[in-house]
Amino acid sequence: MYKQDSFNYTDFLKPYLQELQLHIANRDSFNPKVSKVPVAWHLDHSLKVINSICNALATSDPKVYKSNFNASRIFCYTFGYLPRGIAKSPRHTLPPDTIETEDINEQLRVVQLKLESFAALDDNANFKHPYFNQLNKRQAKRFLELHTRHHLKIIEDIIGNK
To answer: What CA–CA distance (Å, rounded) separates 127 from 45?
Structure first.
């Protein structure tokens, strides 16, 4: 199959992962005017989403992928923006009640390992997103960038760095 890898899949989240790692120091910061949950929640959730999507892509059947139209996805991808307070996170991406720093660090390590094999995935590796429908590897990459940046912006607002 023809690979349309014009993206550097190995490093595409590297700057975001570095920022997430830096914000571990702010893990207990909380600002209820910005978010109902502290920074640690956003860190844990972001990493759970990346890990979950990488797992889903790696175990998917590329033959079942079918391109689909989704107006919400087109809007968000075009403007590079996920609106706040609209979507509800799937249960498996919700952090536990108690979030340990060691768990965040371990998830970060696992994410980095999984992203090393991202480029080798078939272009039609896919997963079902709860709002954007079926996403292939390229679309999943864009979602991971948008989603991680979305939570980093919330973290920045919580700690007051704009």
So the answer is: 18
Residue 104 structure tokens: 């965040």
pLDDT at residue number 67: 95
**Which residues are registered as beta bridge partners of 128?**
134
A 10 A CB-CB count for 110 gives 15
3-state secondary structure (DSSP) of residue 54: helix
Other C-beta atoms closer than 10 Å to the C-beta of 154 total: 19
User: Radius of gyration over alpha carbons of the chain, in Å?
Assistant: 16
Long-range contacts of 155-158 (CB under 8 A, 24+ apart): 155/23, 155/26, 155/29, 155/39, 155/42, 155/43, 157/31, 157/34, 157/35, 158/26, 158/29, 158/30, 158/31, 158/34, 158/35, 158/38, 158/39, 158/42
- Tell me what the pLDDT averaged over the chain comes to: 93
Report yes or no: 37 and 143 within 8 Å, Cβ to Cβ.
Answer: no
pLDDT for 10 equals 59
pLDDT in tens, 29-77: 999 999 999 999 999 999 999 999 999 999 999 999 999 999 999 999 9
Q: Give the C-alpha separation, 149 to 160, whole Å.
A: 16
